[in-house]
Design a protein that fits this description.
This protein is an alpha/beta fold and 226 residues long. The chain has helices at 31-42, 76-91, 111-129, 144-147, 170-177, 188-194, 206-217, and strands at 11-13, 48-55, 58-65, 95-102, 134-142, 156-159, 199-200. It has a single domain (11-217), classed as 2-enoyl-CoA Hydratase, Chain A, domain 1 (Alpha-Beta Complex).
Length: 226
């Protein structure tokens, strides 16, 4: 968030939504224990933080994943915060940006986590109806249910250099198809070559690139200075 949003005027969205344990899930640890450990490690309540603010003076809503929170996995809270972020962007007539870093759907929430794939993807239609830009930023890694849902639905899809992006991991694919994958398979550069993403942008240049794209997409008055 600090790399993307201007310092002044930030407002967190849907921070009151907290994860629960409706399935009473337990593997080697109880789900509430995993949540507590993730909170302690990250200072966040779940894997997605959504904020309204400005980017080089342009109003935006940014949703950013915290990979250290259970691998950035998408559960019901992540899905609901994403949707509320989209709705806020529509209400405030501004662009929506999502920075993804995720291993996929959160297994501890079962079908509730898988439902977020359709929920988040469907919400983006609200932006389309209002002709508001959705810029998707894929970082390392962006995998599983996140890559298979909203991650590639951006009006512009950006990726960081060498980011691992895909559904199943390369080792799983190799074991399934019993073939050796091409060098660099599922890396950002490979996806750019195949036309799956639009641009590769270094993190240090991301704020300017996104604000320039918003300026072009929304026909604002000028592109920001270098």
């Amino acid at each position: 968030m600090n790399l993307l949003l201007d310092e002044e005027g930030r407002e967190e969205i849907a921070a009151n939504i907290k994860p629960t344990d409706p399935l009473k899930f337990k593997d080697s640890k109880k789900y509430p224990d995993r949540l507590a450990a993730a909170r302690k490690a990250t200072g966040e309540d779940d894997a997605l933080v959504v904020m309204k603010g400005t980017m080089n003076g342009l109003p935006v809503v940014v949703a950013a994943f915290e990979f250290r929170f259970i691998g950035g996995s998408m559960g019901s809270v992540v899905g609901e915060r994403f949707v509320q972020g989209v709705r806020r962007a529509v209400a405030d007539n501004c662009s929506f940006i999502c920075v993804a870093a995720s291993g996929g759907a959160r297994m501890q929430e079962g079908i509730n986590s898988l439902m977020q794939m359709t929920k988040t993807s469907a919400a983006l239609h609200l932006l389309t109806e209002k002709r508001l830009p959705f810029i998707s930023v894929l970082t390392d890694p962006t995998m599983g249910g996140v890559s298979a849902s909203f991650a590639f639905l951006g009006d512009v899809v950006l990726a960081e250099p060498n980011a691992l992006i895909g559904f199943a991991g390369p080792r799983v694919i190799e074991q399934t198809v019993r073939e050796t994958l091409p060098e660099g398979f599922q890396r950002a550069e490979f996806l750019l070559e195949k036309g799956a993403i639009d641009q590769i942008v270094d993190r240090r240049s991301m704020k300017k690139r996104i604000s320039d794209l918003i300026t072009l997409l929304r026909h604002e008055s000028k592109v920001t200075a270098a």
